[in-house]
């Protein structure tokens, strides 16, 4: 597959290096805010990348200087009935429709987490609301120093329901900080994000951050995809289960995976100081 | 309800701003150390605040310059038989009494965590033993730079049983640090507390810290209480369950909660640049 | 028991202070890399220390200037058939053998975590692969500033299966950082390790770090072993279960443990400003 | 304590044998249907019995020939505003009130499960709705052959929320049967109840069933209360956790409990063919 | 929607009564054995029925006299490459393909369980392999007395991976029986199935069983769909979580659901002895 | 390996058919009661059988006419200090010794459950105390009609701590029955055991039951050991985890296991109506 297989409105999917894909949110005039249709596209893109054997690492970024994404486009959401779903109906029936709808949106964002290939989020400018929902699904988060973050939802009278509140407590970030920003909807800076570990690095500009992400993605792409995808899968599984379950899981996982030829090739390449070549996955 | 509904010995409950309550531990001559009766009061106060519709955010602080709280008043505990419960009886029967007693004390502290409204802990001076048990139940922790923390219990020959050892591993704090301070009972500083994320901010003085907490509490109080209380509830639930369970919970939670008028009012207020007014909760 | 009870090839077990044991990995010419036999010894040593009543705290370190441990000795592992286990057999049968083998190795490393006495890891130089697997089982991690860490496994084409991927997400460390280093196998420094909380302190030299560890271990050894061992046990249990389960566990735990004479002795010693003496455990 | 300590409207608490309490639902003219106030009483009675050292086993029964209980008294519930709680208010605010109310009712029923002493439910006649909620909290369930059971809630347009749907799947009963009766609200007989294991015995009449329950309760009362209460506690804990957690729990539980003098006395009594006498608990 | 919206090869979807759908597996010449394509259809059908507001209860049955389904059509599976997926490739890469494929098949079967409307399985003749996988996802299981069941997979050298081994332990059936039939692949009869509770009723013929299922489905269809769908959802959730989590879930669920008009209508209809009419869902 | 590798006092290990091992508890004069040393042997035997490639199914039985096992030999346990462990010591220290001891005994019994090969328990005569602990670890339980069961522990003043209370709630048996027999220590019959599903079949005599077990074991031994051992492992895992986790586990398990040649051989044998021959495991 190639770029032509990834035509989705408001997204640019490119391949800046061998085995590296870049997903760019592309609605810069609206600060990359999400319309309802964009959620569907997001899910479709990551489901596709997940099994694309030409992809070993993915960068997620936003077009333009001003924003990674400002979150949900409230106007577009209102126009499409997204915000007033089932209004006027029996409370229970409206409740069921709301549940189905939240499930649908959650699934599109969860597709980023379930994607078998590692995803590196590169944030800059506004990283509001949905930005947090989405990037807590990513594996590595880095940003430009001008990034302004916000768990925005209480500002519009709702508790965030697309993943932020469920995933932040599993991000290795101070709970006092999480509550502080989630309860107040206040802005927080790149510096704070680094201090509490929400991002693992801050760069002087969006460009520098993207360069670094590309370097990282290319580095990952040189490794055995069996090892890399296993590592992502097992860390996520372990995060979601007890340690004993994580140990059991990797044991069963590796029952097949260490039978790969990649281990031998990697060891040999190490000895011969050559770059190993691994089959696609 | 108002201040007169919250008369408890050794606690001052005041309302420094609209929708903001402040609970001050008030036994400064004894470094705000807890007598057995004070545990009961603590539980009663927070159970009451939880459903008080005039409260949207709570500050927890200690009276005097020297201590947030030095922990359990060992002398008072001894006098009341608290430390020698069932001594001399059959080991099993004494064991059952100890269990019942620990359960009772745990419940009073857990009341702080279960309180539907966010609680901001402001620490200064000594923050020993019970101080950690109690504030790990709070949502946001900040402190003055003179604060000295200690997980004190091994110093008196016991493993802490009021919550510290169970809640610290869920606070987003380095486990190596947690073990270090819990196994040695050593003092740790505000600076360390900030570095590892136990507190999310340190201020020059108790006064400054309290001012900041009041600012924070007032900010929270301007938001929709439906959104704020949902946010607290869902973060705590998510911390205690797997991510998939957190996602399911917020989905069902919001089935009713997004049917609130608050969302509309908040959106409209945002557009009109006005301060929204939300009904009590 | 004494040093003579702990004769294991490639390990030096010494007792630098009363109630303090030091386990030194001793294969400096090979950067303290592990042969298959060393895993078995590691498990045996910690299982023994766990019930040794002359031990209250343990230091884990590596001999020589260059490495804590460079990880698995790939050559030795190959020679012993460790890496080619069941090669050529039916895939399923080979898979079962691999599972049994991983289980065996995991158990030796888990022995460090299950050891009833606290373990302080002191790292320096290379701390690669197995170094992370082993030290995530330790209670406190400190290091010299020259330490170079690496989750090395993807470099040789496998997902780490001895514990790193399952325990790091429970170490209170930024998940973005964990994924970054585990997916790339890149080196990371003592400074980064401190910032993200993987270690809780960094010292100028291995010697200084060891001195500090000894100080810490001696401090722990002065406390009631009932309290110290309970504290370790309950923190680990709480990390592995929900908060409510942790609270229940410490309640039942203390049903017997607070009936100890140590509490009384510790309190009395505190009042009399004397050093308490506790019975062995 | 004695019968005079247990004065609650619509309940008779008696002591038909040493260490045996009997709780009789006493509103026979209304088929023992529950008013809102009766829930509060139910919780209070079982909380009290739980720590009453003169009680070692409890029988739960209903007064009159016609019903154990026909469930919630819908009329009384309506009159007290119980069914229309918060009607007309903002959906979210009404939702919060409903949650608080359900929590309150659940807690009263859960008190039966949490009661430290075993509870034997003896059903006859109508055992509808709340009857199932309550008795799934009991330890042993037996009935007269005239009993008619029903999970009644869908008949009045709601999913049962006081425990039936959460506890039945943990009762060791065929899930196909549970769904059948819960989705249709149909009546089921004593015979079916026995076949699927909801009850463990059926007797010809209420009297016979009560006689058998008394025999059972008296038998339990002759055993060591340390052993009996531990057995109840550990089975319930094990039901609610994984097997490994159950094994760990009983291990820690018995650390204190097997230090009881009861074991020695029980063994000696066994040898001497005498009836042992155990201290109160 | 109607029958014309449910055109799928080898399935007949009909509507034998108002609000009742019947899904008939229709490949009688091949004992209703499943081709790979039929799995996809199965998932699609139940995903569609789940949100079809004209459906309140579903019957799942097989066409012809001889079999509900004999399971996977091994020949068809072989022809489509289903059984030799990735054969000859690197073991790890083949392993990944196998995982993706199993996931896909599991998802189609899980669609039956996730379907919001109750599903009643009516078995007869051969009910082999996949028959157990599928019907453990159903809510109610009944059968004709001529039914022969078998967990067939070990017969062809594999451990069942489409759900049987994971769901049977949650069906309220004797574990000794489950192991017996799963380890031997032996046939078991309708009588045994009833005794252990795998089915909740046995009828003399397929026709009688279908009549009974229709009666059951029609009965369910007369109840409030809010109550019925909530009941299914909450029982399944409770089965998959601890009791405390089940209680919390129904509490939050009913926060919206008891605000329905259905409760009032159901109560009123009860009083007026009329049949209530509920809005679609 | 053969019988000569399994010499353990008070146990006879024989091989009545190809791939079938029989473990006979052999202390008939003492009703096969367990001495402390026998626990160690039990664990050793099953650990060895687990990896013995000549074994595919195991029968567990007791020598003599009178008892499967009467449980712990209280006299022998007393003589060896087993019952008075640490008596007179500090309560906490005694508590720690008790914990270590219970852990040790639990591990020997858990070895039966962890054994990779299926274990069929054949009970007769007295099946008291430990008999239940041990057989709840077995896969299939059958018995002679003269069997008398008892969860005996409350009779001697303790809550059972070797597994009965933790495993019975996971045996698919009516909870009301479990509580009934565990709280009273009463005898129960083979007939009751069958009705509630504790055993899956009852035979007229011990001989008949043993014959049937041998038939079952031989049948299992004809199947692919890859399929059989996977089936046991996955059912046990699923019983101990949520359904979604069970589905994930079998998916990863089969990533290697369905790459076996056994599937092909089994299919071919099925077509050719021949008995397949599988490689050892």
UniProtKB/TrEMBL annotation, chains A, B, C, D, E, F:
Keywords, comma-separated and alphabetical: Acetylation, Fatty acid metabolism, Isomerase, Lipid metabolism, Peroxisome, Virulence
Coiled coil: none
Superkingdom of the organism of origin: Eukaryota
Cited Pfam families: ECH_1
GO molecular function terms listed in the Swiss-Prot or TrEMBL record: delta(3,5)-delta(2,4)-dienoyl-CoA isomerase activity
SUPFAM superfamilies: ClpP/crotonase
This protein's pathway: Lipid metabolism; fatty acid beta-oxidation
Record-given protein name: ClpP/crotonase-like domain-containing protein
Entry's localization field: Peroxisome
GO cellular component: mitochondrion; peroxisome
Record GO biological process: fatty acid beta-oxidation
Similarity remark: Belongs to the enoyl-CoA hydratase/isomerase family.
InterPro entries: ClpP/crotonase-like_dom_sf, Ech1-like, Enoyl-CoA_hydra/iso, Enoyl-CoA_hydra_C
Gene3D superfamilies attached to this UniProt entry: 2-enoyl-CoA Hydratase, Chain A, domain 1 (3.90.226.10), Lyase 2-enoyl-coa Hydratase, Chain A, domain 2 (1.10.12.10)
CDD domains: crotonase-like
Species the sequence originates in: Neohortaea acidophila
